[in-house]
């Protein structure tokens, strides 16, 4: 009687083991399926988070040359709404780095002809002693094939610390369809062009249809400035300084800001995007800045590359285009355009150039040391820039003038290439650029970067200038600035003297 019970128990035990094995197998398969779907969903959410709302332009072309540096710079700014293709430095060879590429196809209002060909302009930084010798391929929409273009180049700057700014041009004389990307590679038939970095093309309009002439009054009053902002020479900006710069220049009449800076935290990008547009009444576009060079040595040449990118993006010959900028300005975070008589940029430009014929206006920089004493008559609760009223002598070789580029005065696209070094000087009694930074002796080293003390500052040549102070009440009463100082955008520290870092 015991033997059958043992046999039945053994059989039941085997069934239990089989069921457990089946359950285990199903669980593992389910887990793998869940894991696969989870990563798919997370990838989709990351892409949607980076590329912004449906209908906005996006980066679809990630061909050869889309390296880890670019991916890191993009992912660290994943909260930004990308409305335009961002510029990114890509290495062509040991001597040249491409920044951004712009397509001029002349196809909006007329058919493509041999005279009006596809032209692609690429902003490139290269070694000053190297001569470009490349070929170019143009990549087509929805195709893995490419077309060979005709390569040429322009030199658009003098050598600056061993670097020079170039425009690499690639053209096609036939309409091959919609163009998507461009790549450059060495002019050597033994070298395969397959792994050359590919840059996404940005379309610009360079041809306008005939329209009725605008009256002089409409033309004079049509001043729409756009501002492009780059990092400081020490590429860290405090949260206070960032808000002060945006709010102040918005008071000056700037509603369009393009920010080229990878040191801005994701938190500030997200919070600024969350502020309703009916409150800010401005548009901000954030672009990462992947710096492939020594920052200090190449700062000036990269600034020129960013200025060209800014001009390309805002250039519109078609007067019917909506939201068209008439002037473009490139500033760093510590630079402020401060009028002397007027209260905004529109009035300043109308005073200096009533007919708006000057293609470029040069603004002189004035150095205001943040480690100088506060003005005795300044308000204690006002921002630090409002409490500094003496500017100091800046050697000529260290002066970096700011240019206001008049896009309306450019009759052809090639005018952009000729504005980098020329311009009419703006009198100081109308407008100046105030640069607010710590003043220190560059020849002496200090581990904490401490600047001159009060006694040392007294021996420097300086001049009283209080033009900024008149804007203090308007700045502190601005609704965005009040939201910030009240802690409704960011929680403020109890110590008002601490300039919190991003």
Distance from N terminus to C terminus (CA atoms, Å) equals: 82 Å
Shape: globular
What is the radius of gyration computed over CA atoms, rounded to a whole number of angstroms?
28 Å
Mean model confidence by pLDDT: 77
Based on the structure given, which CATH architecture of the largest domain is correct? Answer: Alpha-Beta Complex
The helicity comes to: 25-40%
How many DSSP-defined strands? 20
Class of the largest domain, according to the CATH hierarchy? Answer: Alpha Beta
Structural class: alpha/beta
Count structural domains. Answer: 2
Q: Strand order within the widest sheet? A: 2-3-6-5-4-7-8
Count of DSSP H/I helices: 11
Biggest β-sheet, characterized?
A: 7 strands, mixed, barrel
Low-confidence stretches: 42-82, 206-221, 492-502
Commentary on this structure:
- This protein is α/β, with parallel strands linked by helices and 502 residues long.
- The protein folds into 2 domains: 68-203, no CATH class; 216-485, Spore Coat Polysaccharide Biosynthesis Protein SpsA, Chain A, CATH 3.90.550.
- Helix content is 27%, strand content 24%.
- The strands form 4 sheets. A 7-stranded mixed barrel has the order 2-3-6-5-4-7-8.
- The longest helix is centred in the first third of the chain and has 50 residues, at 2-51.
């Amino acid at each position: 009687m015991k033997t059958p019970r043992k046999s039945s128990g053994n059989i039941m035990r085997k069934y239990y083991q089989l069921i457990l094995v089946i359950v285990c197998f199903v669980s593992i398969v389910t887990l793998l399926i869940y894991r696969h779907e989870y990563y798919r969903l997370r990838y989709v959410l990351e892409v949607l988070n980076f590329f912004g709302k449906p209908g906005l332009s996006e980066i679809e072309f990630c061909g050869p040359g889309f390296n880890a540096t670019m991916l890191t710079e993009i992912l660290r700014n994943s909260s930004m709404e990308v409305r335009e293709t961002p510029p990114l430095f890509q290495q062509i060879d040991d001597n040249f780095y491409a920044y951004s590429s712009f397509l001029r196809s002349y196809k909006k209002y007329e058919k493509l002809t041999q005279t009006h060909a596809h032209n692609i302009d690429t902003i490139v930084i290269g070694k000053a002693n190297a001569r470009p010798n490349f070929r170019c391929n143009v990549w087509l929409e929805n195709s893995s094939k490419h077309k060979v273009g005709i390569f040429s180049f322009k030199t658009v700057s003098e050598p600056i610390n061993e670097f020079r700014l170039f425009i690499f041009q690639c053209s096609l004389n036939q309409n091959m369809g919609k163009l998507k990307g461009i790549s450059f590679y060495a002019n050597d038939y033994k070298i395969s062009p397959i792994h050359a970095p590919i840059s996404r093309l940005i379309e610009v309009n360079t041809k306008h249809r005939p329209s009725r002439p605008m009256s002089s009054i409409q033309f004079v009053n049509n001043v729409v400035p756009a501002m492009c902002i780059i990092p400081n020479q020490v590429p860290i900006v405090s949260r206070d300084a960032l808000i002060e710069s945006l709010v102040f220049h918005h008071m000056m009449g700037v509603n369009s800001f393009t920010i080229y800076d990878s040191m801005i935290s994701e938190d500030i990008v997200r919070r600024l995007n969350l502020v309703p547009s009916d409150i800010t009444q401005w548009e901000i576009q954030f672009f990462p800045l992947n710096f492939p060079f020594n920052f200090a040595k190449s700062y000036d040449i990269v600034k020129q590359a960013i200025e060209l990118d800014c001009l390309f993006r805002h250039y519109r010959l078609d007067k019917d285009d909506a939201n068209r900028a008439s002037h473009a300005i490139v500033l760093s975070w510590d630079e402020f355009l401060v009028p002397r008589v007027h209260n905004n940029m529109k009035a300043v430009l109308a005073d200096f150039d009533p007919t708006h014929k000057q293609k470029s206006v040069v603004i002189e920089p004035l150095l205001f040391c943040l480690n100088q004493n506060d003005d005795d008559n300044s308000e204690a609760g006002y921002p630090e820039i409002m409490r500094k009223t003496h500017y100091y002598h800046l050697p000529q070789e260290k002066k970096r003038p700011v240019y206001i580029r008049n896009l309306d005065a450019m009759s052809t696209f090639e005018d952009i290439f000729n504005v980098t070094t020329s311009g009419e000087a703006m009198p100081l009694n109308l407008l100046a650029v105030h640069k607010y930074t710590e003043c220190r002796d560059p020849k002496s080293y200090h581990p904490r970067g401490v600047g001159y003390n009060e006694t040392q500052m007294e021996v420097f040549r300086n001049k009283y200038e209080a033009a900024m102070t008149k804007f203090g009440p308007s700045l502190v009463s601005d609704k965005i600035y009040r939201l910030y100082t009240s802690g409704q955008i960011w929680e403020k520290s109890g110590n008002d003297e601490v300039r919190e870092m991003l």
